[in-house]
Design brief:
Blueprint lengths: L1 E5 L5 E3 L7 E3 L2 E2 L26 E5 L2 H8 L8 E3 L9 H5 L1 H11 L4 E5 L8 H6 L3 E7 L4 H7 L6 H13 L4 E5 L10 H14 L3 E4 L9 H11 L4 H9 L1 H16 L5 E4 L2
Helix pairs in contact: 1-3, 7-10, 9-10
Bound molecules: iron/sulfur cluster.
Iron/sulfur cluster (SF4) binds next to loops.
């Protein structure tokens, strides 16, 4: 893993994500190294030759930049971690996300965090004093062995569930981002239903669903990964690459059937 300390010009950037005004990403790159990561396009903004997941640039001055920028920024919702995981293991040492949160709490900016790490629990004290906040944990499948291979350095599945429980106990609004739904491993009606049932029992009322995007652009990497780890899933993935529209339509109806009978705030994002 190549780690470099870099300087950023601005802490906040405009966000194109629906409902979000700004994005805050204390790191470029992500140690979690998920095989399907959508943020790999960030490589082109760096000079890194390493594979995605094998480098992280730490924006060492982001706290100072935020302190200055926030004073001249119109109030709006900030999404923390749009092209990185703001709670990846390096955050334990650098505490950039934590220190940025402190500033955002002082200025009453609404925030949304999305992470695959239970390190977010470290910052419950700050989150509790924020008026407008929401924390989402990403889950992509319910099989811990599959999850560990697809997301090698993210928090283990049971730790993400524990994080959701603890956040709820602390009255911090939570959601689950179920995505990307892994073809072959988590796109069957039974597995979606069992996850939704579990989340409902935990008191999670808000779930977003997304399919695996950009698979054709990542086919080379995915093919190597599947061949090494799940050769029996290779053909299934190839069918998804060949006819993404057909797969999306099928997945949409699987989701509609899986969600029937559950009253919750569910949104399909594709
Ligand atoms: S945690 Fe998110 S940003 Fe990090 S590698 Fe995984 S998908 Fe990409």
């Amino acid at each position: 893993m190549k780690i470099a300390e870099v300087y950023c010009k601005n802490a906040l950037s405009r966000s194109k994500i629906s409902g979000m005004d700004y994005a805050l990403n204390p790191y470029i790159g992500c140690e979690h190294g998920c095989v399907y990561c959508y943020a790999e396009f960030m490589r082109k903004y760096t000079n890194h030759k390493e594979e995605w997941g094998e480098f992280v640039d730490v924006k060492i001055n982001i706290v100072d930049r935020l302190r200055q920028q926030i004073k001249r920024t119109k109030l709006g919702t900030i999404m923390i971690g749009t092209v990185t995981d703001a709670y990846q293991p390096l955050e334990e040492k650098y505490q950039l996300t934590r220190r940025c949160l402190e500033i955002l709490a002082d200025f009453d900016f609404p925030i949304t965090i999305q992470t695959k790490s239970d390190l977010v629990l470290r910052d419950v004290d700050i989150l509790k004093r924020m008026k407008n906040k929401e924390v989402g944990l990403t889950i992509t499948c319910v099989d811990p062995k599959v999850e560990t291979l697809f997301e090698p350095k993210a928090s283990k599945l049971h730790n993400r569930f524990t994080a959701l429980e603890e956040l709820k106990e602390n009255d911090i609004p939570t959601f689950v981002f179920f995505g990307p739904i892994l073809p072959f491993f988590s796109d069957r009606e039974e597995s979606i239903k069992s996850l939704v049932k579990k989340l409902k029992e935990m008191g999670i009322e808000e779930i977003y669903f997304d399919k695996m995007n950009y698979l054709s652009g990542k086919w080379k990497r995915m093919k190597i990964f599947l061949t090494q780890n799940f050769p029996n899933a290779l053909n299934y993935y190839w069918e998804v690459v060949k006819d993404g529209e057909l797969y999306s339509a099928k997945l949409e109806s699987v989701l509609a059937r899986s969600l029937a009978g559950f009253s919750l705030n569910a949104e399909i994002l594709f």
